[in-house]
Design brief:
single chain; disordered C terminus; transmembrane; disordered N terminus; Mitochondrial carrier fold; 2 strands
Length: 333
């Protein structure tokens, strides 16, 4: 579960013949950098890939009568703006979630190591889920500060039925000219409310599911399975985690979309505006677009874990998750 700080030797991955270029010491600066790079690739690429789903979901959250469903939304958008219109908001999505992924995955492993070092091995092995939750919440708090400006631009682009700005840089200038720096962080609190529970569920459910799969389905020691088989476990656990993530974080996701789309009212605080939106939407309104989001987040989360673990295996690190007890959490053995 929490590997020791020994260097991993270069090795051949089963069925690939690939030899890792050099060993990476677990919980070293190179290890955390590898996690950061893997997170960048995992989140940026996958969020960009599902932009068409996100576009329909976001517009339905702002106006639930706009489309009757995912395919109706895609067809309407493609007919009026061409196929490229399906990737409206794609640039801020790619940039924002690449930065968010770097911080989320890099800091998750860093905080997991640091917190485990503070509380000790015995406490950690008895309370692993608590460690996953604390580490992922801390990592996501930082990651959302990087994501929020790009999320604001993305929502404005996606909810504008006419072109929001002539270019991505033009969109940045337009938001800054209207509201200054605060315009980029208008949705930071709802974003934290959406992303922190999402990430806590994402990491804790994933790690728990991996453990259960190795305990009850693939009952041999994890190390006896090929890297391809381990990555199959990663993808399966990632999709299961994604379904739970979508449900837990959906009301806050609706609120983020509505906040970033709402016109500015002089003297009105973000909190007052959020309360007004929640009251107008009601309980059922906060769940608008859940179906498309479950498909989007389930696919997203599975692909993210798969890409992340594939990169880790590529550089010579083990796939995420384990049922093996920690031998040590200290810096030196």
């Amino acid at each position: 579960m929490f590997p020791s700080n020994k260097s991993l030797s270069s090795f051949k991955t089963p069925n690939s013949g690939f030899v890792a270029p050099s060993p990476i010491e677990i919980n070293s600066s190179r290890y955390f950098m590898a996690c950061t790079v893997g997170g960048t690739l995992a989140c940026g690429l996958t969020h960009w890939l599902v932009t068409p789903l996100d576009l329909v979901k976001t517009r339905m959250q702002v106006d639930k009568t706009m489309y009757t469903g995912i395919f109706n939304g895609w067809g309407t958008i493609a007919r009026t703006g061409g196929m490229t219109a399906l990737y409206t908001g794609g640039i801020p999505t790619l940039i924002g979630y690449s930065m968010q992924g770097a911080a989320k995955y890099g800091f998750y492993d860093y905080f997991k190591y640091k917190y485990a070092s503070i509380v000790g091995e015995d406490f950690t092995n008895r309370n692993r889920t608590a460690l996953y939750l604390a580490s992922s919440a801390s990592a996501e708090f930082i990651a959302d500060i990087l994501l929020c400006p790009m999320e604001a631009i993305k929502v404005k682009e996606q909810t504008s039925l006419t072109r929001f700005a002539p270019s991505f840089l033009g969109g940045l200038s337009k938001v800054y000219a209207a509201d200054g720096i605060s315009g980029f962080y208008r949705g930071i609190v709802p974003l934290w409310l959406r992303q922190i529970p999402y990430t806590m569920v994402k990491f804790a459910t994933f790690e728990t599911t991996v453990n259960l799969l190795y305990k009850h389905v693939m009952t041999r020691p994890k190390s006896s399975y090929s890297k391809t088989e381990q990555l199959g476990v990663t993808f399966s656990a990632g999709y299961i985690a994604g379904i739970f993530c979508a449900i837990v974080s959906h009301p806050a996701d609706v609120l983020v979309s509505k906040l970033n789309n709402a016109p500015k009212v002089e003297g009105q605080s973000t909190g007052a505006l959020a309360s007004k939106i929640v009251k107008e939407l009601g309980f059922s309104g906060l769940w608008t677009g859940l179906g498309p989001r479950i498909v989007m987040i389930g696919t997203l989360t599975a692909l993210q874990w798969f890409i992340y673990d594939t990169y880790k295996v590529y550089v010579g690190l083990p796939a995420s998750g384990s049922v093996e007890p920690a031998k040590t959490l200290s810096k030196a053995e």
